[in-house]
Specification:
Largest sheet: 2 strands, parallel
Number of domains: 1
Structural class: mainly alpha
Distance between the termini: 14 Å
Strand order of the largest sheet: 1-2
Number of helices: 3
Radius of gyration: 13 Å
Strand content: 5-15%
Number of strands: 2
């Protein structure tokens, strides 16, 4: 989350992808840095044990939120 916020503050569009397991932490971090409503792509947890095909499915599911985040221009 913090990487995305710092990139956006530098004028670099960013999209944060977060697994549901870490949503609370990501939202708390965003709020702490002044971006309480930061939009992120949430995907199911875990991802470490997924096959390439499983990761591809998760990426496809996250794509609409990633596109939305990149179009927001939060910086």
């Amino acid at each position: 989350m913090l990487d995305g916020i710092q990139l956006e503050r530098r004028g670099v569009p960013a999209a944060v992808i977060c697994t549901e397991e870490f949503e609370v932490t990501a939202r708390a971090t965003a709020a702490q840095w002044g971006f309480a409503d930061y939009d992120m792509a949430l995907i199911a947890h875990p991802i470490a044990n997924l096959s390439a095909e499983g990761l591809q499915r998760r990426a496809q599911q996250a794509l609409p939120a990633v596109r939305r985040s990149l179009q927001l221009g939060r910086a």
